[in-house]
Backbone:
């Protein structure tokens, strides 16, 4: 069995919005497991509980119920947090510091050996292509630059588990590509990457597995290929048949090619169509499931029980 | 310990790079420099007026710096969510809060030292004397500010910045008059006034204990026992308020 880098079991969290208002249940028994070394996408509509889950993992909020383990350790132990690199949804930085001072400060918090601090800071600055502007005040940085610096602080301690909350939001295509490449490089290094995103094509490209969270619960989890295959609720059929054959099975679409028919049939009518074709003496050439994209799959889940 | 020092240093650096600090500091230095003018305008011993006015100015300016910077810098860290990056690292919540507190106290102490230096220069120039008593009075003001900064830290984790400032200012004002009010109510019999004042007097610190201006300005004797008691009172009260702040922050959800 694969080693678990992040385990979440029956996580519950509700918030008190204020006097005379009902508590809001944000997480309702959320459970999932992320294997060591995999890149795991965490998808869900706004308000689904993604950021709340990430805050619970990183100790920023306390769950009402449930357990979280990081590399086999209870998440609230300091040893567990030594293994985590976290990048928040927005690049939260200090305007009074330069980029280098910001990273040096975080290196101190991580208790990196003093002799290594300058070297490691230079290394991560280079990784996120921020060596040039590193000595400028952060208030002069663009959103993309702040995002890179925020990622750099997450990488400083060579984490075993990298948690990224919307790492590509607000980035231009080049910035997105750079972050994507960095995540892939971390994966190569053996780092487990857990990240939430709204940008589904990126998730599809990078992730080994994904979880879809809706209403504070995981609705689906698995490899992208597996998930979309499960969703195949239509089939494409090619067949050759004589003139004058009339099919009674309802078809979603059909057209006649030069030497064969092509039709799309709903999953529930697949067997009926095959039987009808056999009875009519038609020759079945091909039958294949219609694969939906991850985006279609995700949207169906969002709309089926999201906001 | 390294995390506490790093957070304290970052807080101190942030305060030094904040324009708000220089606004208060500028105001205080102008006030001190003009103490000679007040000495001239007042009937009586010019030297005593300069010292009294100078020490009062230092106390007022340091209090404003302590209140404003404390609430501002702690709330800013939570509101701008820079605290997320810190607490997701192997840093305990109390380490964060104590680091912030020490950084703020260092800021207050640095400003107090600068203002005291200016007052010493003013007395040296105009009165041709170096009064070590001024240093003692300034040290007691620092002790008072350590306690007030602890209250500001507590209110910063309990409430919004504006309310936090108001509450800390209220502690300062009540802390300086509570003893007088308590003495006055000894002559009141019946009703709720007396138990109410007694409760306030018991819960809030008596900040007049740290006020040695009269003794210093008029060159009165101060017993070492009185000083020791004041130091113990200040440190114990500060520790208690910080423990309360850390306990509240420990269970706070950072949403």
Residues:
């Amino acid at each position: 069995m694969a080693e678990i880098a992040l385990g979440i079991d029956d996580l519950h969290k509700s918030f008190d919005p204020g006097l005379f208002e009902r508590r809001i249940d944000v997480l309702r028994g959320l459970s999932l497991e992320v294997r060591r070394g995999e890149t795991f996408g965490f998808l869900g509509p706004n308000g689904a509980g993604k950021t709340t889950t990430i805050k619970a993992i990183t100790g920023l909020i306390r769950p009402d119920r449930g357990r979280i383990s990081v590399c086999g350790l209870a998440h609230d132990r300091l040893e567990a947090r030594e293994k985590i690199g976290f990048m928040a949804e927005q690049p939260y930085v200090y305007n009074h510091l330069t980029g280098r001072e910001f990273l040096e400060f975080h290196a101190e918090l991580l208790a990196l050996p003093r002799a290594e601090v300058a070297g490691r800071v230079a290394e991560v600055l280079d990784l996120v292509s921020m060596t040039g502007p590193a000595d400028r005040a952060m208030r002069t940085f663009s959103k993309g630059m702040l995002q890179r610096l925020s990622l750099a602080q997450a990488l400083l301690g060579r984490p075993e588990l990298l948690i990224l909350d919307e790492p590509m939001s607000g980035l231009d295509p080049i910035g997105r590509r750079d972050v994507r490449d960095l995540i892939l490089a971390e994966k190569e290094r053996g780092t487990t990457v857990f990240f939430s995103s709204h940008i589904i094509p990126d998730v599809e490209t990078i992730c080994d597995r994904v979880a879809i969270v809706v209403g504070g619960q995981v609705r689906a989890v698995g490899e992208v290929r597996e998930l979309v295959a499960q969703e195949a609720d239509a089939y494409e059929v090619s067949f050759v048949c004589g003139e004058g054959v009339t099919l009674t099975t309802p078809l979603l679409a059909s057209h006649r090619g030069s030497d064969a028919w092509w039709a799309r049939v709903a999953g529930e009518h697949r067997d009926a169509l095959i039987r009808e074709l056999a009875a009519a003496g038609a020759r079945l050439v091909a039958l294949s499931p219609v694969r939906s994209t991850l985006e279609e799959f995700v949207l169906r889940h969002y709309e089926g029980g999201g906001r | 310990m390294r995390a506490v020092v790093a957070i304290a240093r970052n807080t101190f650096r942030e305060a030094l790079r904040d324009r708000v600090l220089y606004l208060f500091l500028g105001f205080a230095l102008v006030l001190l420099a003009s103490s000679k003018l007040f000495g001239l305008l007042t009937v009586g011993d010019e030297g005593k007026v300069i010292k009294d006015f100078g020490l009062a100015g230092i106390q007022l300016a340091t209090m404003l710096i302590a209140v404003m910077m404390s609430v501002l810098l702690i709330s800013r860290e939570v509101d701008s969510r820079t605290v997320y990056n810190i607490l997701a690292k192997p840093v305990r919540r109390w380490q964060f809060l104590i680091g912030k507190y020490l950084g703020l106290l260092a800021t207050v102490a640095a400003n107090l030292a600068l203002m005291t230096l200016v007052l010493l220069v003013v007395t040296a120039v105009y009165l041709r004397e170096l009064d070590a008593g001024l240093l003692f009075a300034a040290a007691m003001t620092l002790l008072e500010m350590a306690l007030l900064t602890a209250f500001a830290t507590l209110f910063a984790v309990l409430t919004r910045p504006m309310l936090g400032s108001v509450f800390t200012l209220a502690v300062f004002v009540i802390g300086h008059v509570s003893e007088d009010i308590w003495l006055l109510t000894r002559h009141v019999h019946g009703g709720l006034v007396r138990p109410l004042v007694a409760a306030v007097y018991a819960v809030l610190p008596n900040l007049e204990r740290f006020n040695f201006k009269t003794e210093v300005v008029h060159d009165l004797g101060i017993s070492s026992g009185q000083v020791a008691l004041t130091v113990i009172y200040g440190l114990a009260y500060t520790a208690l308020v910080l423990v309360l702040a850390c306990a509240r922050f420990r269970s706070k959800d950072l949403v």
Notes: DSSP finds eleven helices and no strands in chain B. Chain B has a mean pLDDT of 86. Chain B touches chain A at residues 2-3, 5-7, 10, 13-14, 17-18, 80-82, 84-92, 251, 253-255 (CB under 8 Å).
